[in-house]
Amino acid sequence: MKAEHTEAVWLTEDTEFTLAQLAELAGTSETEVRELVEYGALAPVDPDAPAWIFNGRCLLTVRTACRLRVSFDLEPHGVALIVSLLERIQGLESQIGSLRAQLPQRR
Protein backbone atom coordinates (compact mmCIF):
# COMPACT_ATOMS: atom_id res chain seq x y z
CA MET A 1 0.00 0.00 0.00
CA LYS A 2 1.42 3.34 -1.06
CA ALA A 3 1.14 6.23 1.40
CA GLU A 4 0.26 9.57 -0.10
CA HIS A 5 1.55 12.84 1.28
CA THR A 6 -0.87 15.72 1.27
CA GLU A 7 -0.10 19.23 2.34
CA ALA A 8 -2.58 21.96 3.18
CA VAL A 9 -2.01 25.27 1.43
CA TRP A 10 -3.85 28.53 1.99
CA LEU A 11 -5.52 29.68 -1.19
CA THR A 12 -5.13 33.39 -1.80
CA GLU A 13 -5.17 35.72 -4.80
CA ASP A 14 -1.37 35.55 -4.70
CA THR A 15 -1.33 31.76 -5.09
CA GLU A 16 -0.31 30.87 -8.64
CA PHE A 17 -0.88 27.75 -10.72
CA THR A 18 0.31 26.57 -14.10
CA LEU A 19 -2.30 25.36 -16.56
CA ALA A 20 -1.51 21.73 -15.69
CA GLN A 21 -1.67 22.37 -11.93
CA LEU A 22 -4.95 24.24 -12.22
CA ALA A 23 -6.54 21.47 -14.28
CA GLU A 24 -5.32 18.78 -11.87
CA LEU A 25 -6.46 20.61 -8.73
CA ALA A 26 -9.85 21.36 -10.27
CA GLY A 27 -10.29 17.78 -11.43
CA THR A 28 -10.67 18.65 -15.09
CA SER A 29 -8.65 18.62 -18.29
CA GLU A 30 -6.34 21.28 -19.64
CA THR A 31 -8.63 21.44 -22.68
CA GLU A 32 -11.59 22.48 -20.51
CA VAL A 33 -9.50 25.16 -18.80
CA ARG A 34 -8.41 26.45 -22.22
CA GLU A 35 -12.07 26.58 -23.31
CA LEU A 36 -12.94 28.69 -20.24
CA VAL A 37 -10.16 31.09 -21.22
CA GLU A 38 -11.30 31.11 -24.85
CA TYR A 39 -14.89 31.97 -23.84
CA GLY A 40 -13.76 34.69 -21.43
CA ALA A 41 -14.79 33.07 -18.15
CA LEU A 42 -11.19 32.72 -16.97
CA ALA A 43 -8.10 34.85 -17.51
CA PRO A 44 -4.45 33.95 -17.06
CA VAL A 45 -2.25 36.50 -15.31
CA ASP A 46 -0.58 37.23 -18.67
CA PRO A 47 -2.64 35.89 -21.60
CA ASP A 48 0.24 36.58 -24.03
CA ALA A 49 2.80 34.56 -22.07
CA PRO A 50 3.92 31.30 -23.67
CA ALA A 51 3.02 29.38 -20.49
CA TRP A 52 -0.13 30.56 -18.74
CA ILE A 53 -0.14 31.22 -15.00
CA PHE A 54 -3.42 31.56 -13.08
CA ASN A 55 -4.11 33.18 -9.71
CA GLY A 56 -5.77 31.44 -6.78
CA ARG A 57 -9.24 32.78 -7.59
CA CYS A 58 -9.16 30.87 -10.87
CA LEU A 59 -9.19 27.54 -9.03
CA LEU A 60 -12.57 28.39 -7.50
CA THR A 61 -13.86 29.53 -10.88
CA VAL A 62 -12.80 26.31 -12.62
CA ARG A 63 -14.27 24.13 -9.87
CA THR A 64 -17.56 26.04 -10.10
CA ALA A 65 -17.53 25.66 -13.88
CA CYS A 66 -16.97 21.90 -13.58
CA ARG A 67 -19.86 21.51 -11.14
CA LEU A 68 -22.17 23.50 -13.43
CA ARG A 69 -21.13 21.52 -16.50
CA VAL A 70 -21.79 18.19 -14.79
CA SER A 71 -24.94 19.20 -12.89
CA PHE A 72 -26.69 20.80 -15.84
CA ASP A 73 -24.99 18.98 -18.74
CA LEU A 74 -23.91 22.30 -20.28
CA GLU A 75 -21.73 23.05 -23.28
CA PRO A 76 -18.51 25.02 -22.60
CA HIS A 77 -19.92 28.35 -23.87
CA GLY A 78 -22.96 27.98 -21.59
CA VAL A 79 -20.76 27.26 -18.59
CA ALA A 80 -18.58 30.27 -19.41
CA LEU A 81 -21.62 32.54 -19.64
CA ILE A 82 -23.01 31.37 -16.29
CA VAL A 83 -19.61 31.68 -14.57
CA SER A 84 -19.19 35.22 -15.94
CA LEU A 85 -22.66 36.20 -14.72
CA LEU A 86 -22.06 34.68 -11.27
CA GLU A 87 -18.81 36.63 -10.92
CA ARG A 88 -20.57 39.81 -12.02
CA ILE A 89 -23.27 39.24 -9.39
CA GLN A 90 -20.62 38.71 -6.71
CA GLY A 91 -18.90 41.93 -7.74
CA LEU A 92 -22.16 43.88 -7.60
CA GLU A 93 -23.02 42.40 -4.18
CA SER A 94 -19.60 43.47 -2.93
CA GLN A 95 -20.16 47.01 -4.21
CA ILE A 96 -23.57 47.15 -2.54
CA GLY A 97 -22.02 46.00 0.73
CA SER A 98 -19.36 48.71 0.50
CA LEU A 99 -21.95 51.39 -0.23
CA ARG A 100 -24.16 50.23 2.65
CA ALA A 101 -21.18 50.44 4.98
CA GLN A 102 -20.78 54.12 4.02
CA LEU A 103 -24.38 55.01 4.86
CA PRO A 104 -25.13 56.63 8.21
CA GLN A 105 -26.38 54.14 10.78
CA ARG A 106 -30.16 54.10 11.32
CA ARG A 107 -31.49 54.16 14.85
User: In the CATH hierarchy, what is the class?
Assistant: Mainly Alpha
> How much helical structure, as a percent, in the residues?
55-70%
- List the secondary-structure elements in sequence, H or E: EHHEHH
Shape: globular
- The main sheet orders its strands as 1-2
Q: What structural class is derived from the secondary structure elements?
A: mainly alpha
Would you identify the regions where 5 or more consecutive residues have pLDDT less than 50?
none
CATH topology tier name: Multidrug-efflux Transporter Regulator, Chain: A, Domain 2
The number of strands is 2
In whole angstroms, the N-to-C terminal distance is: 64 Å
Named at the architecture level, the CATH assignment is Orthogonal Bundle
* Radius of gyration, CA atoms, in whole angstroms: 17 Å
- Count of individual domains: 1
Average of pLDDT: 90
Tally the helices: what do you get?
4
Report the sheet with the most strands, covering strand number, pairing sense and barrel closure.
Answer: 2 strands, antiparallel
Percent of residues in β-strands: 5-15%
Give the helix/strand layout.
Layout: E1 16-18, H1 19-26, H2 30-38, E2 53-55, H3 56-72, H4 76-102
Antiparallel strand pairs: 1-2
Helix pairs in contact: 1-2, 1-3, 3-4
Describe this protein's structure:
- This protein has a single domain, classed as Multidrug-efflux Transporter Regulator, Chain: A, Domain 2.
- Helices cover 57% and strands 6% of the residues.
- The protein contains four helices and two strands; from the N terminus they run βααβαα.
- The chain starts with 15 loop residues before the first strand and ends in a 5-residue tail after the last helix.
